[in-house]
Write a structure and sequence with these properties.
Nuclear Transport Factor 2, Chain: A; seven-stranded mixed beta sheet; 209 residues; 6 helices; alpha+beta
Length: 209
């Protein structure tokens, strides 16, 4: 393969991976649960504030969450894909947007984060091997500006700054939110996470996904 051909292949792979990133979040928001699960390899790993497991389980539990009335949207902007052989790392800026009613008050919440995945080339095209978030900050505001957000700051002040409002709101819905997730307030965890991802990428094959 010539240098020109190699560069063209890398550009095509990058666009395919970015399409995968956008498609997976769109499937999640649209409620296309089979398409969501199909964005991943079978032996996948996903970790979020409320979930840890594989893609099929994630799709099923996302459906259950939707049936219970929690609907979030996930705008996403892929920013980097680094490809080595049949492996790649992809990172995207993202938001998780949610409108909920808490103690009778309608509120809008936004979680700012970056989504990070290991991706592998398969016979069906590029697919996610992992999906994790690096949390940055979150906000909450009443839909009616005359309302007061029903939040006791004493309940959230000791939680992780990167996702404390999100954790508080999810806990009120009965979910358990770990306090050891990746976040910009824990650069030590993020640095180790990146190091492990770079080692995986350098191996450059799909033998150990």
């Amino acid at each position: 393969m010539t240098t020109t051909d190699l560069l063209a292949q890398q550009r095509a792979d990058r666009e395919d991976i970015f399409d995968l990133v956008r498609h997976e979040r769109f499937a999640r928001d649209r409620g296309d649960w089979d398409a969501l699960a199909d964005s991943f390899i079978a032996d996948s790993y996903i970790r979020t504030t409320w979930f840890e497991g594989n893609a099929r389980e994630f799709a099923d539990q996302s459906l259950d969450m939707a049936v219970k009335g929690r609907h979030s949207k996930h705008p996403i902007w892929p920013i980097e894909a680094r490809i080595h052989g049949d492996r790649a790392l992809v990172e995207s800026y993202a938001e998780i947007q949610n409108r909920s009613t808490i103690d009778g008050v309608e509120v809008d919440m936004t979680q700012h984060c970056r989504f990070f995945s290991r991706v592998v080339r398969t016979d069906a095209g590029w697919r996610f091997s992992t999906f994790e978030a690096i949390y940055q900050k979150d906000t909450i505001a009443p839909v009616n500006p005359h309302d007061t957000v029903p939040i006791d700051w004493n309940e959230v002040s000791e939680l992780r700054p990167a996702y404390r409002i999100w954790a508080w709101a999810m806990t009120k819905r009965g979910y358990e939110v770990p306090q050891d997730l990746l976040g910009d307030d824990r650069p030590d965890l993020v640095a180790e996470f990146y190091r492990e991802a770079e080692v995986w990428l350098a191996e450059g094959s799909t033998d150990s996904q």
